Give the backbone structure.
Amino acid sequence: MALLDVQGITKRFGGLVAVNDFSLSVDRGHIVALIGPNGAGKTTAFNVIAGFYKPNDGKVFFDGVEITGLRPDQVCKLGLSRTFQVVRPFGSISVLDNVMVGAYARTSDTRVAREKAEEALEFFGMQKFSGSTASGLPIASRKRLEIARALATGPKMMLLDEAMAGLRPAEADEVIAMVRKMSEEKGIAILLVEHVMKVVMSLSERIAVLHHGEKIAEGNPSDVVQDKQVIDAYLGEANVTS
Ligand SMILES: Nc1ncnc2c1ncn2[C@@H]1O[C@H](COP(=O)(O)OP(=O)(O)OP(=O)(O)O)[C@@H](O)[C@H]1O
Ligand SMILES: [Mg+2]
């Protein structure tokens, strides 16, 4: 049984159908990418899956439990965590305190939360930032902080919404390494939204493509990037060979 099973979700905003009858499944420990042009509905799909929006239609199952309509904190407690396209750490508090906020998803004990947060920071080699104020960090470190906070919630799966956008190649490589490490050492499944095709190709075992809210292709990366509909809708000829 798939870990995440999205069955025909539709999300409308007034007359706009942002996500239309979208289905996707992700197995335990797998890395899957969701790609598509701006406004295709990727973030909206994430928001439905993670409980931020109720779908107009369709169902979402996680680890054998229907999670459609559950609140984000309930979804998170079941082991599905996410990061946001626009990073929003609590700026005035320390990195450690930010990561503790994630850990409180699973415990109300401050000591345990601190331990879990320290573990998450150490897992990514970020202990040296523990005492820094989050708002003082450069964007790349804030993006890494978001992932550490999501890890501290103790997830079976993580949704990453453009975790590498706006980063320089070397910084993006660090985030790629974080994703690989979570997958390989902790068996955490990853669903990632990403525009940088090099990142998508190097990380994902499967790619799904959204266009105007609809899934137009899904398959292994090398097939998907050669799909005519995907090239026309999103990639353009230039990206296929690069
Ligand atoms: N809260 C909202 N209210 C109304 N319309 C929305 C809302 N959120 C998203 N939309 C619209 O839904 C469509 C899908 O947006 P979404 O943010 O999901 O796209 P995306 O694929 O994540 O794009 P990007 O690559 O630019 O992040 C867009 O037309 C967007 O304007
Ligand atoms: Mg988006």
User: Anything to note?
Assistant: The beta strands are 4-13, 16-26, 31-35, 57-62, 65-66, 80-82, 157-161, 189-193, 206-211, 214-219. The two ends are 36 Å apart (CA to CA). The CA atoms of residues 15 and 27 lie 34 Å apart. Residues 42-43, 85 surround magnesium ion (ligand 2) (CB under 6 Å).
